[in-house]
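Re: [ENG-882] Designed sequences occasionally contain unexpected residues at chain ends

Forwarding the minimal case from QA. Structure tokens:
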């Protein structure tokens, strides 16, 4: 079983904000596989289905970004998942909008959602898929990530979200190393 977690904030006012890029990928994956009717479980909306021939849980925590680890930790413990079988999808201000990057381990890079996931899993070694949202520039970072994408960013984001879904499918079917080789090399 694989656990695919998109990080974001649950309230309607955060829909389509930069910080909800992870939720956006989960929504697209759910549509691709006709997964509907999420159940509330593990402090998250959870959908179950088969992706690339493997049973998967798609998850959107409802605990807000800074407490995302609660949902991830509960699901990982319940299903006895190795951190290598958990993919966290998150926004990244260090990447240009429209770029994605996969990593198998590393620091949270200042992202509070990843910090809490790392606390819950007790390790820095778990796959994460970062979705570039551009640097905030002169805008305070909290205002920037909670703001909506500009029109020029949306033009870059749309194909990146599709590519992120492709990367998730590839990760499930072929593993992290092959997926990083294929998707991190793209410009």
């Amino acid at each position: 079983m694989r656990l695919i977690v998109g990080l974001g904030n649950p309230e309607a006012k955060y829909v389509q904000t930069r910080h909800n890029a992870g939720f956006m990928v989960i929504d697209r994956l759910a549509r691709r596989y006709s997964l509907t009717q999420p159940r509330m479980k593990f402090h998250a909306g959870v959908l179950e289905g088969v992706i690339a021939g493997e049973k998967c849980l798609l998850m959107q925590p409802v605990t807000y970004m800074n407490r995302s680890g609660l949902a991830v930790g509960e699901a990982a413990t319940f299903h006895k998942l190795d951190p290598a079988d958990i993919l966290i999808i998150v926004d990244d201000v260090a990447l240009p909008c429209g770029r994605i990057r996969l990593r198998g381990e590393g620091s949270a890079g200042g992202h509070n959602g990843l910090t809490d996931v790392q606390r819950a899993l007790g390790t820095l070694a778990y796959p994460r898929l970062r979705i570039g949202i551009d640097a905030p520039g002169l805008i305070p970072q909290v205002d920037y990530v909670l703001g909506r994408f500009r029109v020029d960013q949306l033009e870059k984001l749309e194909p990146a979200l599709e590519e992120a879904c492709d990367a998730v499918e590839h990760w499930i079917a072929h593993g992290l190393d092959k997926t990083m080789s294929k998707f991190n090399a793209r410009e």
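QA comment: On inspection the terminal residues look reasonable. The first strand starts at residue 2 and ends at 6. Proposing we downgrade this to a documentation issue.
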